[in-house]
Design a protein that fits this description.
By secondary structure, this protein is of the alpha+beta class. The protein has nine helices and seven strands, in the order H-H-H-H-H-H-H-H-E-E-E-E-E-H-E-E. Helix content is 44%, strand content 14%.
């Protein structure tokens, strides 16, 4: 009754009209002034203020609307004053795990299955999560669910790659097939193709030698994606064992002074993953490489 009287005293005639429309407003709780009566009180209070350093930028980074500070503080008080209540701890942990699922894991899985035959439906994912924790085997056991998901993950990834990059792989295969018919092109058992542009007569490096190389790399449509000239006026330095398989094989066959044109199938280049923005997965590549020398210093 006392609460009702206090609440009623705070309403104006306009509030009374709102009551008839079932809109009932309650005043915000009144905060008691903080009394600092000892040095420890002051140190503790100052420590609390000090701990907020950097908090606002962090909240903004987490996409929290800082205009809703009263709501933030409500949650803060709930945790700060909960003590060691195990039910409260479990409840808050559930909230934290749900937040991690919603903000990190579910978006990642959703992106993974994007453009594949299946998609991630968040509500069903949460239901499956709850079922596992309740030992509900209506649809799956946890072991069966893990096996089913893993199989679908692999199959959908393959289907997605085929949809996105299958044409690129097929274009590379056809290019190399036609290129192999050129009399000046040599095809090795590995699938690597090359044409000798300049025949050198120097030493042939080993996989562990440091070599000096000028190069230019192109896609099969002629797009230049890299060249040693882009990185300065000196040849690139590396060991043949540090580069893609097609280069390793070619460099350990080339005499110093040679210049070859390489035609590299995707298996000997960047494979199913590609590299950077220009080199898509399953890309066959063309390189002009000039072996300038071997550095054994």
């Amino acid at each position: 009754m006392a609460l009702a009287l206090v609440a009623g005293a705070s309403f104006s005639p306009a509030d009374a009209i709102k009551k008839k429309n079932k809109v009932v407003l309650f005043p915000a709780p009144v905060e008691q002034p903080v009394q600092l009566t000892s040095s420890s009180d002051s140190v503790s209070y100052a420590a609390g203020m000090r701990l907020t350093d950097g908090l606002i930028p962090f909240l903004l980074q987490q996409k929290v609307d800082t205009a809703l500070m009263d709501d933030f503080l409500k949650g803060f008080r709930e945790v700060a004053h909960s003590g060691e209540d195990p039910r409260q701890k479990a409840y808050l942990m559930g909230m934290d795990i749900a937040r991690q699922l919603r903000e990190r894991m579910v978006p990642g899985m959703t992106q993974e299955f994007h453009d594949s035959p299946d998609s991630i439906i968040a509500d069903k994912l949460y239901k499956g999560f709850e079922a596992a924790l309740r030992n509900d085997t209506t649809h799956f056991t946890t072991a069966a669910a893990a096996k089913y998901f893993s199989e679908k993950q692999v199959a959908d990834k393959a289907a997605k790659e085929e949809k996105l990059y299958g044409p690129n792989r097929e274009a590379g295969r056809k290019f190399l097939e036609e290129n192999a018919k050129n009399d000046s092109v040599i095809t090795l058992p590995s699938g690597l193709q090359y044409k000798v542009l300049v025949k050198g007569d120097g030493e042939v490096p080993t996989a562990s030698d440091k070599v000096l190389v000028n190069y230019e790399g192109r896609l099969i449509d002629g797009t230049v994606f890299d060249a040693s000239a882009k990185h300065g006026d000196k040849p690139a330095e590396f060991t043949p064992s540090q580069v893609i398989k097609g280069w390793t094989e070619a460099l350990t066959m080339m005499p110093v002074g040679s210049k070859w044109q390489l035609y590299i199938p995707y298996e000997l280049a960047y494979g199913e993953r590609g590299a950077g923005g220009d080199i898509k997965p399953f890309s066959a590549l063309i390189f002009d490489i000039e072996l300038v020398g071997i550095d054994r210093k």
